[in-house]
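Table S2 (continued). Query chain:
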Amino acid sequence: MISRLDGFTSVGSTGGRDYDEKEIFWGEEFDHRPTTTARLELLQRAIDVFPDLERAELVQQLTGSRPLSPDGRPIIGPVSGRKGILLATGHTTKGIHLGPITGRIIADYICRGSTQVVSDMDQFLPDRFANFADADFLPAAQAVDE
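Corresponding output:
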């Protein structure tokens, strides 16, 4: 839960709970509509922590997918052949946890042109997908065990 500056409280998320039915996340058929089950679960969890939220009004329910790379690792660093372009994506449900170190890595690239924060940055650089054809991404992502 996050208390926002606009006075609202954001509660989330259900990410990962339906991953036993991975096929629902594949292709263009992924259903991005909010569900009653997710809403009730999140509201109950919030009320368990802050009982006064039981009197709150639900203003908005959002749904969507998180960025996932084909190998399940974040994509962090410069894009070869594109001066000044840096990526920091593919963190899936760990984005909030990996935000500080990702920020430090990106800051190093901006300020120094390289980073020493992670000893083996090759496993995170966008170049690791240089030999992928567009058709390779969906089967690779389907094999990821999130």
